[in-house]
Specification:
Blueprint (H helix, E strand, L loop, with lengths): L1 E4 L4 E7 L2 E7 L2 E4 L4 E7 L3 E11 L5 E12 L2 H7 L10 H28 L4 H4 L3 H13 L2 H5 L2 E13 L1 H162 L3 H10 L3 H14 L11 H16 L3 H16 L1
Antiparallel strand pairs: 1-4, 2-3, 2-5, 6-7, 7-8
Helix pairs in contact: 2-4, 7-10, 8-9
Length: 406
């Protein structure tokens, strides 16, 4: 009898007489190695790498497909039939499992290779090198539905394509073509950028022009609205003024009617008063006319008396004037001249004397005047006339007139 305790991730199947009597993970088994067989399979997932460098594309170019397959055993009965997982004490369990899992990986890789060859042959090299993700999905779908995988009791956890690489010469050719294409795309990008800049500048200018046009239209609309608003305000003001004028006119008409009515009554009263006043005035005027007629009669009589008095006065004045004229006619001219000369200044008297001398020049033979003589004459005349006043001259004239009247 022997006792064996297996690891927790070991799936253990105990077989007696060709039948599984006990199975499970991490079992502890007490067995008789003469009558009992034990099979140990891994319950963990394994990663298997693959690289297929002899795959040919549709354009006859060789490519290398590299990837990793993640798988695990899910049906231990099928796996035990297809692989040797017998527990043999001299051989380590891990080594035995590694050997069998390597064999399982080789079988899975062969299936994957068939699928890759079939898929790669459908596409050219330029296409296939860009389809790593699609290739992985295709392989995973094909393995899931493949009967060989089902018979092995294995489930595919994941398929990852690490790369699809062409040969070096093909890669260089593709790189050269791609490089030229990239340069061409670069040139195209430069030209497109220039064209885009030109187009953008044109668009900007068009937008500026359109903006100016829209701004002008908006300003025009604004001006039109402002004009409409001003016209509306003016209409409202005119309507209000018109209504106000109509109300004022109605009020004036009412006031005129009331005033006319009042004036009519007032005029009637005034007319009646005027008629009464006119009647009274007529009576007073009649009385005054009678009084004026009597007064005119009296005035005419008084005027006649005044005319007679004035006539008498005029006769008296005419008589007095006649007496004065008569007196002047009888007046002595020499005396009057003497009186007039009495009031003259010495210069005037000297001029008068010299005039008389000139009038009698034919009667005078020779006459000499010296400055001393002239000074003496003028001084004596001044002294003689200085004492002669106007009152004395008047008295003398009156005396002469009195003598003449006598």
């Amino acid at each position: 009898m022997k006792f064996k305790k297996f690891k927790p991730n070991d799936y253990v199947m105990v077989i007696k007489n060709g039948k599984v009597v006990r199975e499970g993970l991490g079992l502890s088994v007490l067995y008789n190695d003469l009558t009992t067989s034990i099979m140990v399979a891994p319950s963990t997932a394994f990663d298997g790498a693959f690289a297929f460098d002899d795959v040919v594309t549709s354009d006859y170019q060789s490519v290398c497909v590299q990837g990793v397959t993640t798988y695990m055993i899910t049906d231990y009965n099928k796996a035990a039939k297809m692989l040797d997982f017998a527990y043999q004490p001299p051989i380590q369990t891990d080594d035995k499992i590694a050997e069998q899992m390597a064999l399982l990986e080789k079988r899975i890789n062969n299936i994957i290779k068939a699928i890759v060859i079939r898929e790669v042959s459908k596409k050219d090299v330029r296409t296939i090198i860009r389809l790593a993700d699609e290739m992985a999905e295709t392989i995973e779908t094909a393995l899931t539905s493949d009967e060989s995988i089902a018979k092995l009791g294995v489930s595919i956890v994941a398929i990852n394509i690490l790369g699809i690489n062409p040969k070096a010469e093909t890669r260089k050719a593709l790189e050269a073509a791609a490089r030229e294409q990239i340069l061409k795309e670069q040139d195209d990008a430069i030209y497109m950028r220039r064209n885009a800049a030109i187009e953008q500048e044109r668009v900007i200018k068009e937008n500026e022009i359109n903006t100016e046009i829209k701004v002008a239209e908006k300003e025009k609309e604004k001006e039109e609205k402002e004009q409409e608003m001003r016209q509306y305000v003016l209409r409202c003001d005119l309507d209000m003024k018109k209504e106000q004028e109509e109300r004022e006119q109605e009020m004036r008409l009412k006031a005129l009617r009331s005033e006319l009515a009042m004036n009519t009554e007032k005029q009637e009263k005034e007319f009646a008063l005027k008629e009464m006043a006119a009647a009274k005035k007529l009576q007073i005027e009649n009385k005054e006319m009678l009084g004026k007629i009597e007064l005119e009669k009296k005035n005419s009589e008084y005027t006649a008396l005044e005319v007679e008095n004035e006539k008498a006065k005029a006769d008296q004045q005419a008589y007095a004037l006649a007496g004065i004229v008569k007196a002047y006619n009888q007046l002595n001219v020499a005396l009057v001249e003497a009186c007039a000369m009495a009031q003259m200044d010495p210069a005037t008297l000297m001029a008068k004397a010299f005039m008389n001398i000139g009038d009698n020049a034919d009667k005078i033979g020779t006459i000499n005047f010296t400055p001393d003589l002239l000074q003496t004459l003028t001084g004596g005349i001044a002294r003689e006339t200085a004492g002669l006043t106007a009152d004395k001259v008047k008295d003398a004239a009156n005396a002469v007139l009195g003598q003449k009247k006598k």
